[in-house]
Design a protein that fits this description.
Layout: H1 2-30, E1 46-49, H2 51-54, H3 70-82, H4 85-88, E2 92-94, H5 121-130, E3 134-140, H6 156-166, E4 170-174, H7 181-198, E5 203-206, H8 208-212, H9 220-226, E6 229-231, H10 240-252, H11 254-257, E7 266-268, H12 281-293, E8 298-300, H13 309-315, H14 318-324, E9 333-338, E10 341-347, E11 353-359, E12 367-372, E13 385-392, E14 396-402, E15 406-411, E16 416-424, E17 434-435
Parallel strand pairs: 1-2, 1-8, 2-3, 3-4, 4-5, 5-6, 6-7, 15-17
Antiparallel strand pairs: 9-10, 10-11, 11-16, 12-15, 13-14, 13-16
The chain binds beta-D-galactopyranose (GAL).
Length: 441
């Protein structure tokens, strides 16, 4: 009897289950492709973003060279194409806040400031595209941008359509002046859907977790469904303390942010300030090395018209860029902190690893750090043997090592030594206990 009863009710459940399955399938089909599914940012985006260096300078009469204007972006576009930036991967030329006119036009559309962008964004996009580059633009989920220009709240579709119509390729969406956490989430999701609906390939950069975190734990699985990369921590400034704070925040939250990063969605520790005023040569090496370790978007904020050959060579270092852009797309993490030293690793494709040794001591001379290759890649990076290449501060071959080799590197104060291990299957000549002298910078 009981069995018969189960059978009968099971019989009623069958159409219900089929209906639920159908609904689920429909939901999956109807689910708009978010950041992760838009096919973009399969490796961390690279380019230039005006904010840290040029901020909100709108006075072109006083500051004609440095104000936020089409001229500034056209000059940067020229240099990105002529000075090798584009060719090593810096592709997105991005406008940040303060490009807009103070009000929307009669149709409610965002418009650029007419004095500073007299030709319009569409013309600027054409110019940027003619240089083989892509154009990024900035907007905000709330009522106003952080600098007080018109926000996109209530205008998500119109703004997405306007950007797509202009030929924009990336949107940085800020989260200032949003009333509640619900509106914040809705704003980020709605803009993602709206961008997707335009049919244009537009990389979507978010600051959702940064604004959410003080009140609520971010759900990174959800964020990655909507965004191609996202800021977690405060704005970078042109200072070593700022770089250190970002690294400390990242390593202390690595358990919750590292695994989610991957092709299509990246943690964004903010712009590169290499080539500016605040970081020493060693600190610039540290920023470049650690941003490569963190699989960070590489968005420079500097003046390409005035950049030292040394900063340029560092930013254009192909071996470091190859680590940043590694197709496996795994973010690196800190394995240990030993006194003033931090040891980081990043798994790369083909069983290789990037290794960074950072010396946090900010006085004295170069310090030696010794470590066993058995620590690296949970013992696999160098098993049974590997070749090790030093990439920063200078490129050199450190030879072959076994899985129990000890490696000693000298690291300048606040500097980083960046290495790459490549595993070799056969047992080969072993370079045990090798020691390497400091690199002059
Ligand atoms: C901040 C944002 C910065 C910059 C600025 C513009 O909130 O984090 O990266 O975009 O707004 O006002």
């Amino acid at each position: 009897m009981a069995g018969g009863g189960r059978q009968r009710s099971g019989g009623r459940r069958a159409p219900l289950a089929a209906l639920l399955l159908l609904l689920l399938l429909l939901a999956l089909v109807a689910w708009p492709a978010g950041g992760l599914d838009n096919g973009l940012a399969r490796t961390p985006p690279m380019g230039w973003l005006h904010w840290e260096r040029f901020l909100c300078q709108t006075d072109c009469a006083q500051e004609p060279r440095n104000c936020i204007s089409e001229q500034l972006f056209m000059q940067m576009a020229d240099l990105m194409a002529s000075d090798g930036w584009r060719d090593v991967g810096y592709q997105y030329l991005c406008i940040d806040d303060c490009w807009m006119a103070p009000t929307r036009d009669k149709q409610g559309r965002l418009q650029p400031d007419p004095d500073r962008f007299p030709s319009g964004i569409s013309k600027l996009a054409d110019y940027v595209h003619s240089k083989g580059l892509k154009l990024g633009i900035y907007a905000d989920a709330g009522n106003e941008t952080c600098a007080g220009f018109p926000g996109s709240y209530g205008y998500y579709e119109l703004d997405a359509d306007t950007f797509a119509g202009w030929g924009v390729d990336l949107v940085k969406f800020d989260g200032c002046n949003v009333g509640t956490l619900e509106l914040l989430a809705e704003g980020y999701k709605n803009m993602s859907w709206a961008l997707n609906k335009t049919g244009r390939s537009i990389v979507y950069s978010c600051e959702w977790p940064l604004y959410q975190r003080p009140l609520q734990k971010p759900n990174y699985t959800e964020i990655k469904q909507y965004c191609n990369y996202w800021r977690n921590y405060f704005d970078i400034t042109d200072a070593w303390t700022s770089v250190k704070n970002i690294l400390d925040w990242t390593s202390s939250h690595q358990d919750s942010i590292v695994d989610i990063a991957g092709p299509g969605g990246w943690n964004d520790p903010d712009m590169l300030v290499i080539g500016d005023f605040g970081l020493s040569c060693d600190q610039q090496v540290t920023q470049m090395a650690l941003w490569a370790m963190m699989a960070a978007p590489l968005l420079m904020s500097n003046d390409l018209r005035r950049i030292s050959p040394r900063a340029k060579a560092l930013l254009q270092n192909k071996e470091v860029i190859a680590i940043n852009q590694d197709p496996l797309g795994k973010q690196g993490y800190r394995i240990t902190k030993d006194g003033n030293f931090e040891l980081w690793e990043r798994p790369l494709s083909g069983g290789a690893f990037a290794i960074a040794v950072l010396n946090r001591q900010d006085f004295g001379g170069p310090q030696m750090f010794a470590f066993s290759t058995a620590f690296l890649g949970s013992g696999l990076a160098c098993n049974p043997t590997c070749s090790i290449q030093q990439i920063l501060p200078t490129s050199r071959d450190l030879g072959l090592h076994s899985w129990v080799s000890f490696l000693k590197v000298a690291v300048n104060p606040t500097g980083t030594v960046l290495l790459k291990t490549v595993v070799i299957e056969e047992k080969l000549v072993i370079n045990n206990g090798s020691s390497h002298s400091p690199d002059p910078l």
